[in-house]
Write a structure and sequence with these properties.
The chain is α+β, with helices and mostly antiparallel strands and 281 residues long. It contains 7 helices and 18 strands.
Length: 281
């Protein structure tokens, strides 16, 4: 167990913490490992007032594990391809980031055999209004499911396809993408490796084809039902951004969704990193 004790305040009752007095660049190893523990057991962390370069963010990301690569290089930091740029900012006549990233409920990299364990966002510029990030506590959602519904969904397997995400972007998969991202099959209910707690997980508005051994539309309807249940307001934390914020979440026990803002009026510029996770179980 880490020796450091960090001051925290809850984001929601039973979910997430804001960590006070922590500097991601200069913290010692004990403090960093305590941050990992807090994220594992609370599902999300907020750390305000962080002045990080892309290299600093990659170094902080490595505290949590192996950084995961991004599917495409177009919107990554040139010297640090682990860092994806979420932005509507124009530089030299071109948009430097993906302004539409994450605008539907999902978990990151659920189209991969080893989905993202953690997602880390660092805000460089934020709109004065809009662009909130929503996080759903899917452990709380599982615990709130009636017993008969828990028995119905526990043990089911969801078929995920990267092709569905590509189609949502109105483009055609490349041959390289077909090889890199074959269809995968993940549990609808998984256990968190830190403590074994169960969570509704295999849901998304983007990648599922359905449920194995269940015909559609029944399978897709059940996924939609679980997603709508898990994203009720009672399970959701809404993060209102300030420049310098780090918002990190554990994809194994959350879902997330971005919200719109006036892109003609405001600039949003955020750096995102992922940490590679384990095969869900």
């Amino acid at each position: 167990m880490p020796n450091a004790t960090l001051e925290t305040i809850p984001l929601l009752a039973g979910f997430g913490v804001e960590i006070l007095g922590f500097d991601a660049r200069s913290a010692d190893e004990d403090a960093r490992q305590e941050v990992v523990r807090l994220l594992d057991h609370h599902g999300a962390i907020v750390i305000r007032g962080q002045d990080l370069t892309a290299a600093d963010q990659v170094a902080f990301t490595r505290v949590f594990g192996e950084p995961a690569e991004n599917a495409g290089p177009d919107y990554t930091v040139k010297e640090h391809p682990e860092v994806f740029i979420i932005s509507n900012k124009m530089v030299d006549g071109r948009v430097i980031g993906d302004a539409e990233a994450g605008t539907a409920w999902h978990t990151d990299l659920n189209y991969d055999k080893r989905p993202a364990a953690y997602t880390i966002l660092h805000a460089l510029e934020v709109p004065a209004e809009g662009s909130d990030t929503l996080l759903a506590d899917t452990c709380a959602a599982w615990n709130a499911l009636p017993d008969d519904k828990q028995r119905q969904v526990d043990g089911l397997t969801v078929h995920h396809s990267y092709a569905n995400l590509v189609a949502r972007s109105q483009r055609t998969m490349t041959e390289e993408e077909r090889v890199a991202y074959p269809d995968v099959f993940h549990p609808l209910v998984r256990r968190h490796p830190a403590d074994g707690r169960k969570t509704l997980w295999g849901m998304s508005t983007t990648t599922p084809n359905g449920i194995v051994d269940m015909p559609n539309p029944e399978g897709k309807n059940l996924i939609r039902e679980m997603l709508e249940f898990a994203t009720q307001d009672r399970f959701v934390y809404r993060h209102k951004w300030r420049a310098g914020d780090i918002l990190a979440w554990d994809n194994r026990c959350t879902m997330h969704c971005g919200t719109p803002f006036d892109k003609s009026k405001y600039t949003r510029h955020v750096h995102r990193t992922w940490v590679r996770g384990e095969v869900p179980f």
